[in-house]
Automatic annotation (TrEMBL):
<dbReference type="InterPro" id="IPR012830">
    <property type="entry name" value="Citrate_utilization_prot_B"/>
</dbReference>
<keyword id="KW-0479">Metal-binding</keyword>
<feature type="transmembrane region" description="Helical">
    <location>
        <begin position="146"/>
        <end position="166"/>
    </location>
</feature>
<feature type="transmembrane region" description="Helical">
    <location>
        <begin position="258"/>
        <end position="279"/>
    </location>
</feature>
<dbReference type="GO" id="GO:0051536">
    <property type="term" value="F:iron-sulfur cluster binding"/>
</dbReference>
<keyword id="KW-1133">Transmembrane helix</keyword>
<keyword id="KW-0408">Iron</keyword>
<dbReference type="InterPro" id="IPR036197">
    <property type="entry name" value="NarG-like_sf"/>
</dbReference>
<feature type="transmembrane region" description="Helical">
    <location>
        <begin position="299"/>
        <end position="316"/>
    </location>
</feature>
<keyword id="KW-0472">Membrane</keyword>
<dbReference type="InterPro" id="IPR017900">
    <property type="entry name" value="4Fe4S_Fe_S_CS"/>
</dbReference>
<feature type="transmembrane region" description="Helical">
    <location>
        <begin position="105"/>
        <end position="126"/>
    </location>
</feature>
<feature type="transmembrane region" description="Helical">
    <location>
        <begin position="322"/>
        <end position="342"/>
    </location>
</feature>
<dbReference type="GO" id="GO:0046872">
    <property type="term" value="F:metal ion binding"/>
</dbReference>
<feature type="transmembrane region" description="Helical">
    <location>
        <begin position="224"/>
        <end position="246"/>
    </location>
</feature>
<keyword id="KW-0812">Transmembrane</keyword>
<protein>
    <submittedName>
        <fullName>Tricarballylate utilization 4Fe-4S protein TcuB</fullName>
    </submittedName>
</protein>
Amino acid sequence: MQSKELLDDGKRQMRLCNACRYCEGYCAVWQSIEWRRDFTDNDMTYLANLCHDCRDCYHACPFTTPHEFGINPPKLFAQLREDTYRKYASPRIFAKVLGEKRSGFWITFFFGIILMVALILGTNGTSGLLEAKVGTGAFYKSMSEAVMIIAFLALGIWMVGGWLTGMSRFWKDIKSAKSEKIIGKDIVKGTKYALSLRYLGGEGAGCNYPTDEPSTIRRKFHHLVSYGFMLDLASTALGAFYAHILHIPAPYPVYHPVVLLGILGGIGIIIGTIGLLVLKAKSDPEISDEKAAKSGTSFIVALLVVAVTGMILLLARETAAMGILLAIHLGSVAALFFTAPYTKFAHFVYRYLALIRYAQEERIAHQPVEVKVGKQPVKTGTTVAGKH
């Protein structure tokens, strides 16, 4: 649960920022701040997840430490985002064990490998783990197709169900208290903002991360990770189509679309995650929250492990090591799925909803205000600041 002290200090900082407005127009956060006269707890949660941690505002601000105002929005919002992952997760007991402890993924990864080894031994015995498999359906000679489908269908439902529960709770808190409803235009615009990572672009110049020099490199690394992950999902979906609709089971040759999508996705994730880790190592620790930084690093490394083990499995799929490598890779995927609702993996669902909410605010703010001149209504100007 978010601490009262943190929320109160956040409101103090936002009131000062709203009075200063030096960062006006920097990103969606500062526009949203200007549309408010004061700030609630839910406003702080919304603004924290709308923030992309570009840090432009910090490097521009004349009131950062050692000034008595101590303004530091990147650190404030990082702390609030970490609280978001715990607050909206369900069941909350897992949020504490898997989310607050950065070792959660690694512990789950260890048990995931043990589970996969047990499933392999239980379905195909030691030959499934230790002998080379080649030809059509080779993977299923290690682990039963039915067992693999059931295990990862359950994990997928757990992951998506956790995200949907969190999204429902989060949206209930940040949605407009006014009568305005979300419309299709808001969803389209919010999705566009999310897919383009617009607010990591600094209006073309890039963001001040990891140093005070503007750069677009972080945005590029984020794109590689995001679209690499989407390509891997597309590979998995296409593989399911080939296996269950066309009845052509894996493994497929390297030139097959399923494999090519997986390779491109894996390479994108590997390059992107390594790049983000390098940038994190170079970033100023005074600007960020230590706990949030370690949590983010743990998540990035988890994605890197999944991608690397998948690529190694591809390279060694016709060797005697295939069974063990399959257990390791599937164990890493199982750990990622199981911990997904409680770690930084959940950040994209909250940021996506925050961007849709922002698109709604943006639309409302630019709606003409209807006033009456005599008996005739006349549209003039736009809605006043603070309407939201």
